[in-house]
């Protein structure tokens, strides 16, 4: 932007339930990501477990949840169809890991100058760091420690392989 602050491009927010592609093109002058700290982690978002958690916390009505579930299902179907058509997701791959890697590849090979990857997404964390609209006694926002230390993260081949794949899609050696 004008003041040197990059705009965000958040795939989970940009998704539509139709069109090809089912999202707005990724501009160059953005920080691209799948989600943000105020959104559910990828695993929770893809499985809709965030919807169930927000119902349990009383911040989402069952009526609204039904609408959200339907909209999310259509978005997920459109995204998976697009990822398959681009060769980023195998036809027979319905795994959470496969969809995550395909989404990361999609953003990594986009025009975005910067890409933000959540480490917690890489190990398919389903508990959010923050649940907006809740009080401290309802949800421990910003108090949960990461499941793994930095040393453990760098020692897990599946995590470093995911980051290596992102790096390769970015066109780096």
Specify the helix fraction band.
Answer: 40-55%
Low-confidence segments, given as residue ranges, are none
Counting DSSP H or I runs of 4 or more residues, the number of helices is 8
SSE string, helix = H, strand = E?
Answer: EHEHHHHEHHH
Describe the structure.
- There is one protein chain.
- The protein has 173 residues and is mainly alpha-helical.
- A 3-stranded parallel β-sheet has the order 1-2-3.
- The longest helix has 24 residues.
- Helix 5 runs parallel beside helix 8.
- It is globular and about 45 Å long.
Q: What labels describe this entry?
A:
173 residues; mainly alpha; three-stranded parallel beta sheet
Any chance you could write out the topology, listing elements then pairs?
Blueprint: E1 7-10, H1 11-14, E2 30-33, H2 42-47, H3 49-56, H4 62-85, H5 96-108, E3 114-115, H6 119-122, H7 150-154, H8 157-169
Parallel strand pairs: 1-2, 2-3
Provide a compact summary of the structure.
The chain is mainly alpha-helical and 173 residues long.
